[in-house]
Specification:
The strands form two sheets. A six-stranded mixed sheet has the order 1-2-3-4-6-9, with helices on both faces. It contains ten helices and nine strands. Helices cover 42% and strands 15% of the residues.
Length: 255
């Protein structure tokens, strides 16, 4: 049985962490495989969006502490790749996390790396590595405050306490809630909706939203303008023509 499965269908790549016996914990080999999968996804023009989830009722329990207990097996350079895999990569396309069960420690960081998080009502988030003195080095101290705010992020980071799906949704840590067992299907539906939009414009707006954090306001606005040039030339005139013919009136998305 492979530790990761990747399957493409209708422009959507479904990536499955498949170590249910270890709650889908990541080790150095799996991290390398995840990087390769998402690099290939980024380069494949036939794929528009990816969904990341875990098999067996858990998203991901973080890095495999059995491996981390042996320092010789830790493949980590502070300015190199993230131990969890793709967490220091900024892709050109969106990724949605479909979360059942635990998304904790490095698994939380992997979920934070994704653009959106669809969570089952039984999902649990947390910096559980606080108990063992394992630091957040896959973006947790950076992305968590940006997504839920400094105070709430420090609540999670300093205490390591579990955050249930309801609280996560109220905080904006989970973007969608769904019944137990439905996270993958709901994430797939969301991916289909996003993939149906004009791609050049969607990707440009997404990258601007990610990159603006690094820039002063005036530079961020100019960068947004530069990124919007291609969509204006390639897609906006077609969309405006559709609107002028009566499509999309009243905020409709179904025509």
């Amino acid at each position: 049985m492979t530790s990761i499965n990747a399957k493409a269908q209708n422009g959507i790549l479904i990536v499955t962490l498949n170590r249910p016996e270890a709650r889908n914990a990541v080790n150095a080999r799996i991290a390398r495989e995840l990087r390769a999968i998402f690099r290939d996804f980024n380069a494949d023009s036939a794929l528009k969006i990816a969904v990341l989830h875990g098999a067996g009722g858990s998203f991901c329990a973080g890095y495999d502490l059995k491996e981390a207990a042996n320092p010789e097996k830790i493949d980590y350079q502070p300015e190199g790749e993230g131990p969890m895999g793709p967490t220091r990569m900024l892709l050109d396309k969106p990724v949605i996390a479909a979360i059942e069960g635990h998304a904790v420690a490095g698994g939380l960081e992997l979920a934070l790396w994704c653009d959106l998080r669809v969570a089952s009502e039984t999902a649990v988030f947390g910096v559980f590595c606080r108990r063992f003195g394992v630091p957040l080095i896959d973006g947790g101290t950076v992305r968590l405050p940006r997504i839920i705010g400094q105070g709430r992020a420090l609540d999670m980071i300093l205490t390591g306490r579990p955050v249930d799906a309801g609280e996560a949704f109220r905080w904006g840590l989970a973007d969608r809630l769904c019944p137990p067992g439905q996270a993958l299907e709901e994430a797939r539906k969301l991916a289909e909706t996003i993939a149906s939009f004009p791609e050049t414009c969607m990707r440009a707006d997404r990258l601007s939203a990610h990159r603006q954090w690094d820039l002063p306001l005036d530079e961020a606005l100019k960068a947004e303008g530069r990124g919007g040039l291609a969509p204006l030339r390639e897609e906006a005139s077609k969309g405006a023509a559709r609107f002028s013919r009566g499509q999309g009136r009243g905020g409709r998305f179904d025509d």
